[in-house]
Amino acid sequence: MTTSTSTKSQTPTAAHSLAHLNVLISGASVAGPALALWLARYGARVTVVEKAPALREGGFAVDFRGDAHRTVLRRMGIWDEVHRRQTHMGRQILVEADDTERVDLPAFLMSGDVEIFRGELSKILHERTRDRVEYVFGDSVASLTEDSEGVAVTFDHGAPRRFDLVVGADGLHSHTRRLAFGDESRYLRFLGYYVAGFDVPNHLGLDRTARIYSEPGRTLLLSNYGADPARAGVGLVFGSERLDYDRHDVKQQKKILADRFANLGWRHAAGALDGLESAGDLYFDAIAQIHVDRLSRGRVVLLGDAGYGATMGGIGTGTALVCAYVLAGELAAARGDHHVAFAAYEAEVRDYAKGCQKISGNAGPFLAPPTEKKIRSRDRMYRVLSSRFLAGFFKRLTEKAASDIALKDYARLDRQP
């Protein structure tokens, strides 16, 4: 277990209206540290607990698009740093089985206003908060017991502690949500597809480009984002009935992928899949959504994928940053009254989060169309959208959900009598 504790005083951007508040956040990926940044600025004492032994590096690239994303990144003070660490990803090319290029997808179509690896974004947030926020790695919440004064929390390894509020920001399969809201089966909607990713040697010499091959119901994407010229990322998407597997059994997951992608027709598929058995960084999950009736129960509240997640295609990272801004702001506006703040948070973000989540519903069949006819239809659409004129129209459409929220200036509200 590793602990990093604040020793420096903050430079406030708003009145210290939350100095009396002691908050536990479960999850140190993106949503949790983003909320920690805002709560620390408002003066709260914040602890972030993360079951992983350290920050998780790598991960898929995430992009930000539209006014709401830009506004929050700027108010957080990380807009320039995100741009400095962006992927600079270039062309992504749809190919035939013999590797003939079918459709060239230019960078301006795929990467939003700015694109960054999730792991790099996590590092930025940790760097901006580690001197004001307590981080506890290698531990996890074991139980929550709420009373009129707060929440008694036990941990898998650390000593029991008490907090005023607990935030579940621990992802699609949130353990905090299970403890406070009930079993995941009540909230997770499986969408008929699975996604996986791992790294392999960059045998094709890709340089900030990707090649994408689809057969009915399955797609392989091989890409290099420039961070390490010697490595390439393999992305796999396939349609399936719901599978019965152990989320913690990597060997079982590798066998599922090897069976599902056996004899894929692309000439470079075998070379990419050869790295599966030795991959030490496998990501494997269902493409699914989380739907809860409410985002809070008493002193426990859900943020990001834990409350309104979608595995991919739902602008989830941008949504998490926007909603973290709102949750912290409403707590500050309510002077820490969680009854008022949580209700206001839900009123502000529910429709917005659901709107972003809704566009993820077609991610699976779009990435891995179920028939050859639908593959060709998707590719024709891509070809049309590759023109800059129509790409601008498409960009505005994709930004609509991402920007469909009127953001309050909570710092200004907090200064009012």
From TrEMBL:
Signal peptide: none
Protein name: FAD-binding domain-containing protein
InterPro entries (alphabetical): FAD-bd, FAD/NAD-bd_sf, FAD_aromatic-hydroxylase
Gene Ontology molecular-function annotations: FAD binding
Domain of life: Bacteria
Annotated ranges, domain FAD-binding: 22-178
Record-linked Gene3D superfamilies: D-Amino Acid Oxidase, subunit A, domain 2 (3.30.9.10), FAD/NAD(P)-binding domain (3.50.50.60)
Pfam families associated with the record: FAD_binding_3
